[in-house]
Specification:
The complex is a heterodimer of chains A (about 110) and B (about 280). Chain A is of the alpha/beta class. Chain A is about 40% helix and about 25% strand. Chain A is globular and about 30 Å long. In chain A, about 45% of the residues are buried. Chain B is about 35% helix and about 25% strand. In chain B, helix 4 crosses helix 5 and helix 7 runs parallel beside helix 8. Classes of the chains: A alpha/beta (about 110), B alpha/beta (about 280). The complex binds adenosine-5'-triphosphate and magnesium ion.
């Protein structure tokens, strides 16, 4: 898994490439907690290149949201594939995250 | 040195129906007493195999061999395509993360809360941080209908609840395969139905399951395929419909739960007279 973070008009766009699983989640977790630690107001996770995510990946996203909410921060998901959508749905956590078709949409769109 | 083991993610890319478990020619004896004499089994991704058989017929022994907890005297087991018992311990440990085990009555640690029991494999086998682990624990307890019971101790739970916590713990690492050893024994019919439904729901997520059970109703409800162990051999194999329809007297006796039939009640290894007079 590879993680790249860039800032665009104050929004952190985190592009993830590869599987997010029990082995790789800790790395994603530290990247994201750094952002919430800085109180970044909006985090867009580009999931377009994530073929697979397990419970630890979902839990990492949920924890990021839990850290962002108290300061009014937002976490948006962009371009999740069908595997990622499926596990979100199976965990009954679909409603937690605004989901956008692309990073551009996530940057533009209202929550 | 890193050992190349396909990650759960790579496994996910296996086509549905890929073989995840294969046992060939398994033989096992204890003290010269033959328990398994040539067992062949296989399981595909997402499939549920039920192993039935009388008490003492070798079901648990068979499960332990499939999981690599016990060595067969002869024969081979492949888990996710890897030969169990012939791979380095480190690779076996990696393999172990890919399957979960549900024991009779949950086998929880009594000194730990429900949440800590479920968290156990996550704390032992991953580098996830505590906050993330706590969320996974909630997700898994939700999956078995026990969200909100995190802080209870096992002694405060009913048998059915313990069993569900055991299932949540077995699910903690998102296994691709689950082994259940008599998951409904000791439960009332309602709780048995709840656990049966849970096993089916989990299997629908694509998790392969090997279920040892005495409960015929539950067996027929969860199985894609059933095998019956008798005298160390698989004496019958079929889909639930085939098993229901069979005229094989051994299977009929089991399915109908009758005392009379070809299965003798006597299971002693030695004759009483011989034992008493043998001067042992
Ligand atoms: N470690 C062992 N040492 C000696 N004998 C053993 C051992 N494990 C199992 N056995 C014997 O092997 C036989 C099969 O036992 P096993 O526990 O596999 O049966 P089972 O089908 O699971 O029975 P149950 O339905 O009662 O759980 C029994 O006769 C048992 O006593
Ligand atoms: Mg047993």
């Amino acid at each position: 898994m590879r993680i790249r973070t860039r800032f665009q008009e104050g929004v952190a766009v985190v592009s993830i490439e590869g599987d997010v699983d029990m082995y790789t989640s800790p790395e994603l977790r530290s990247a994201l907690s750094e952002l919430t630690g800085e109180r970044v107001p909006r985090i867009v996770l580009d999931l377009g290149a994530v073929p697979f995510m397990d419970s630890s990946g979902i839990a990492t996203l949920v924890q990021t949201l839990k850290e962002a909410r108290p300061y009014g921060g937002e976490v948006r998901l962009a371009a999740p594939g069908k595997n990622v959508l499926r596990i979100l749905e199976l965990s009954n956590l679909m409603a937690l995250f605004p989901i956008h078709g692309s990073v551009e949409e996530a940057l533009r769109g209202e929550a | 040195m890193t050992v190349k083991v396909p990650s759960p993610a790579e496994q996910e890319k296996l086509p549905a129906g890929a073989e995840i478990l294969r046992a060939e020619g398994i033989r096992k004896s204890y003290d010269g007493h033959r328990v398994l004499s040539g067992i062949d089994l296989s399981l595909r991704k997402g499939e549920t195999l039920v192993i039935m058989g009388r008490s003492g017929s070798g079901k648990t022994t068979c499960l332990r061999i499939l999981m690599g907890q016990e060595r067969p005297d002869e024969g081979s087991v492949h888990l996710f395509g890897r030969p169990v018992g012939r791979i380095p311990a480190k690779e076996m440990n990696a393999l172990r993360r890919r399957f979960g085990v549900v024991f009779q009555s949950g086998a929880l640690l009594n000194s730990l809360t429900v949440a800590d029991n479920v968290a156990l494999p996550l704390r032992e086998l991953t580098k996830l941080d505590e906050k993330v682990i706590r969320i996974i624990v909630k997700m898994k307890l939700d999956q078995v209908g026990l969200l909100g019971f995190e802080h209870l101790m096992p002694a405060q739970l009913s048998g059915g609840m313990k069993q569900r916590v055991g299932i949540a713990r077995a699910l903690a690492l998102d296994p691709e395969l689950l082994f259940y050893d008599e998951p409904t024994s000791g439960l009332d019919p309602v709780m048995t139905a709840v656990i049966t439904k849970l096993i089916r729901d989990i299997s629908r997520l694509g998790v392969g399951s090997v279920v040892v059970t005495h409960d015929m109703k539950s067996a027929l409800a969860v199985a894609d395929r059933l095998v019956m162990l008798y005298m160390g051999e698989i004496v019958a194999e079929g889909t639930p419909d085939e098993i229901r329809a069979t005229q094989d007297p051994l299977v009929r006796q089991f399915v109908d739960g009758r005392a009379e039939g070809p299965i003798p009640l006597q299971t002693a290894r030695v004759d009483l007279l011989e034992d008493l007079l043998g001067g042992g």
